[in-house]
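re: ur question from yesterday

yeah so i grabbed the chain u mentioned. its 246 aa long if i counted rite. heres the sequnce exactly as i have it in my notes:
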Amino acid sequence: MRSRIPVAVFAAGLLLASAPLLRPAPKGGLDAARFGRLPALEGGRVKPLDSFARNSLLLIRGKQTALVDGKRMGASAWLLDAAYKPEAADTYAVFLIDDPEVLGLLGLEAGKSRTFAYWQLEPRRSEIADQARAADKVPSARRTRFQTSVLALDRRLVLYERIKNTFMVSGQRDPAVELAVFGEVVPLALKAIHDGRSATRKERDAVKVLAELLQRYKFLANAAAFKPLPPRPRTPPRPGPPSESR
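ran it thru and got these structure tokens back, copy pasting raw so excuse formatting
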């Protein structure tokens, strides 16, 4: 059980960092602007999520915004959908592909747009990964254009897939529900460990649920594109010096 403690710490931090997003949001949906201001640890640096989102889109699409239904979508809104609504984000044409051989591998044709959605690439995902592994074994100076392009595409896909599995396992249940379950089972599971054989069935069941959650959080800890951090608590302004009465 001790080996799982770091994962539990990550899980608690992840859920705490996500908590501001689980509060009631405006009628238009989740608050992308507030989401973009949340801090995250990525590449050894703490940065706002909006900064990470812009850099990610720039790498994936070549621009810091996405184009969805003919309208520009900001980087934070795109990241929010990728993390919490992957079924929608998978339909956004953000992957820039301009190599004819790569398009041939994917069974796609270049049209007016050179960007494609994840759902169009997913059926050939294993082939992309295989070609990328083969290309990675070739020294960069000797790679063909196809090898360079397919390796770059694979890295962009990996980044996107890691983003989708940062706050929760992609396609899993509402994180607000999981937060509630996690809060309920932890004290019961700890009591079961303390009580040993005298633990109740409910407490033993809580240990099983917690083990499943920790396994999922272990996957997230390894797959996450960044480490969410809890927002800093607001500090009340310091009172000024008392005014002298005249």
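noticed a couple things. The first helix runs from residue 5 to 18. also The two ends are 67 Å apart (CA to CA).
anyway ttyl
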